[in-house]
User: Fold CYP6K1d from Locusta migratoria migratoria.
Amino acid sequence: MGVYLDGLLTELVAAVSVVLLAVYVRFRWGYQYWKKKGVSYTSFPFGNMGPSILGLESYGKFLREVYEKAKGKRFIGLYSILRPVLLIRDPEFIRRILIKDFSSFHERGVFLDDEEPLNRQLFFLPSPEWRPRRVKLTPAFTSGKLKGMFQTVKIIGINTRKGYKIEKNLSKMYQTSVIGQLLFSVHINDLMDRVACNLRLFADDAVVYGRVLSLTASVEQSNGLKRLTAERAIARRGEVSSFFRKMIADNVEYREKNNVTKRDFIDLLMQLKNKGFVEGDKLENEQDVGKSYFTLEDLAADSFGFFAAGFETSSTTISSSLYELALHEDIQSKLQQEIDDVLNRHGGNITYDAIAEMTYLEKVLSETLRKYPPLPFLNRECTEPYTIPDSDVVVDKGTGIVISLFGLHYDPEHFPDPELFDPERFSEEEKANRHPYVYPLPGDGLHACIGMRLGLLQSRVGLVNILSKCSVRPTEKTTRDISYNNRTILLLPTKGIELKFVKRI
Ligand code: HEM
Assistant:
């Protein structure tokens, strides 16, 4: 028996050694990729992204570090486990990827678990489905449609103002309420409402899901790991997925049975389901769209996608603005002066047109998004062999492409003294002196953020409501050094930022 076990153990050790050797050789061979192409590269035993994949480091911060270390280079190669990824630093090359040579970089290159219906949303859809979906959804975000939704945003903004004394997570609650009402028609009369609480709970889960996605995105070409990550994604999201799908299906059924029409996203998406287009808007390119109609599943996926893409990005924009304004009283006073002047001209009413007149507010938000880009990178996949202009390097099909917004925004070459919060960086003169692609924030080109104007509108209305009635100040506990959450691909502070609201006289 003893001899038999010894033999078994020896065989086991030998088998494990062979597997380890094979893995080692595979990785060593994989890491020759950039070296062979003569591209500067960085590499550690498990690619460069191990710490962010394992949740030990913020992905946005990691990319910024790579960007900074590669100073003087136009691009740098790195590895996501075994997948070659090219980080682009040169603004002119960025312009090509996003606009001019888009046809070679039209995919996001994120691995999708097809069994999850909510994954089939605009943000992640691959070609050829993405383009017609984008064309169909674009009319839902025109100025006319946003004006129609303005009243909802405004009313929730006023409720938020009333809630400032009691609620610590003010900006998060406000955004969940706006998006919740615009997308799911969840009526939230009180900021402490239970439905709003549930929605927030699930919204947090959607953000954690972002981390799982970053993982699956990173292992796109490691087939063996695909199934493992896909299963984890489903397990994590099962409850969230059924919550959202049921909420939307009930809503649609109720409206169809009772002939209810409203000025919100569900209504617009229902038009796509029942008529194949959004009323009152000309289609950009009708032959691209064809005669296809949205299914209930498409409607649910895009509602969820808008919720996930829109709520945390906008809420973090408000809280980051309030944080910087609390630390810079002079900037805050200047902004309040503008808000007071414009509102006086509009009879004290917060209207769509009044908000549009607040140009300093726009600069404050642009500077906030420079220092705290909620999605700190853009990603694409190379879809055909591509020779980098002014170089001999050929980027192969399947290579991941990343653009570090966080890196570009803190590059002193483009933004001198980058830690300084200075809205005047966004004066017309300053903007004209900079390459536009060092701040390609909403993204640019055909994949650009479809909801940016709504995100900014919500943020503006939220800030105007708060700052017209109170001032914001730091407390003894307000941090001066924000650390970022490692568990999500978004750039979110690890802890909430404590601020004090003081009623204006
Ligand atoms: C301040 C708020 C927001 C910020 C900073 C932001 C940022 C971004 C960024 C950086 C991208 C990637 C663009 C690219 O890859 O080129 C993006 C894409 C996207 N965003 Fe936003 N976003 C915001 C608000 C919203 C809102 C409110 C919605 C929806 C209601 C939304 C929906 C989307 C969608 C669907 C995409 C994918 C578009 C496509 O690939 O065709 N976003 N966003």
